[in-house]
Amino acid sequence: MVSPDRRTFDFVIAANRLPVDRHVDNDGGVEWRTSPGGLVTAMESVMHGREAAWVGWAGFPGEAPEPFDDDQLRLHPVPLSAEELRDYYEGFSNDTLWPLYHDVIVPPTFHRSWWNCYRKVNERFAEAVCEVAAEGATVWIHDYQLQLVPALVRDRRPDLRIGWFNHIPFPPVELFSQLPWRREILRGLLGADFLGFQRPDDARNFMRACRARLGTTTVGDRVVWRGADDDRLGASPRTVRAAAVPISIDADGLRELARRPEVVEMAKEMRASFGNPKVVLLGVDRLDYTKGIRHRLQAIGELFEDGEISPPDVTFVQVATPSRERVDAYRTLREQIEATVGRINGDFSHLGDIAVHYLHQTYDRQDMAALFQVADVMLVTPLRDGMNLVAKEYVTARHDGGGALVLSEFTGAAEELRHAYLCNPHDIAGLKETILRAVRDSPQEKTRRMRALRRRVQRNDVQRWADDFLAALAAAPGRPSREEATE
Ligand code: ADQ
Predict the structure, then answer these.
(1) Overall CATH class of domain 9-247+466-486
(2) Mind listing the pLDDT tens digit for each residue in 147-169?
(3) Whole-prediction pTM value?
(4) Which part of the chain has CATH 3.40.50.2000?
(5) Residues with beta carbon inside 6 Å of ligand 1?
(6) Would you identify the CATH topology of the domain 251-460?
(7) Is-contact 28 48, C-beta < 8 A?
């Protein structure tokens, strides 16, 4: 990594986090390592061979490091103080917007001070984008933390082509309307040329919100924005397209990894470490209340109680990545889950035969590829989820064609993965039946379903997602004319 000049770039990504983590060794030496997150992998497939800048927070509070280069990627850190992290990130993003956009599974908290901070931080991101964007550049903004950035950038730089992608659901207008700052958020988003969502329903929810809350007209998948007196977007009419572009995974990369002999061997060892049961049920989630882990545990606990499943023949492995541990709702969730796991194991485990293996850890890609191959039945049961990449990773990692996927109807993934064993996680009786069906169906039926699922993910991989998004952004009608841009 070298110290950069003040160049500008034709392609700019803005996301809450930079795609690298800082590691400080014992001698105080600093090293930046690519973080393992999905967005990094997704963006790698867009950026190979092209120079680009990535604007985001570097992962620690206080002063931000100077911009630096990682290969062809310019990393442009945005500073966040400890208070801003609390109010913009943990507060407004994760305790207001996150629950509101996920069907109000827990009640959202509304604080004016959090909102003020969100606005301030969004302005900082917008300024950073404008600093690194070349004339006429394409800007791709990510997710719910940066919903004001599209309009803030457009205000400053009408020459740019601006896209935004929402990784989480966009809520029905009846829920969205609870937000005291609903109009400001909609106007922020309408600064973009193209808005990408996970599902057609999310795009439709957004357009309904624009009609209901801003009085805009919509034509097909386009919102016609004429501006308003109190609006800073300007009076020139603009057209903003909103459509579904479902995200996916690097299917080729994962399949290649999962096939490696050392990964196949690792899977065998993992299975042995669980006591070589006949059936392994697996859940892999960030520890988040949207993921339906409590409902899943209830169904599993009842199946043990009913005697339908029991160790050592059947074991359930729950991997739960630590997440947002400074937000109250997440701490409570962790306590509840750990208490439930303890209760189930107290009642149904015997010496050496564990009913529930609970792993509160993060694993690397190789471990995950092996773990998926151990799972005879994968349980993906969120109460609401923008997409859920775990479902797509699971079917891809099962290169042997085995396995079965139980998938909640309330995930974006269910829209595409129709051959999964679909379930409503709120219906515990139905969930139990679906799990048993996935365990007991004939191998032929399971193979048939998995083949269809694998084909689907193979065809619609992350490269396709990125290509589709960028093509839609390039073709979006909203670009202001030269006269508008220079007015
Ligand atoms: P997330 O809510 O984080 O993402 P998800 O799509 O499931 O959810 O992605 C999680 C990623 O983390 C997967 O790649 C998974 O393999 C990995 N992971 C989970 N547990 C892990 C562990 N213990 N160790 C290592 N890796 C682990 C948000 C939205 C989703 C949307 C994505 C992408 O909430 O709905 O699918 O963004 O748009």
Answers:
(1) alpha beta
(2) 999 999 999 999 999 999 999 99
(3) 0.94
(4) 9-247+466-486, 251-460
(5) 38, 167-168, 247, 284, 286, 319, 321, 361-363, 368, 385-390, 393
(6) Rossmann fold (3.40.50)
(7) no
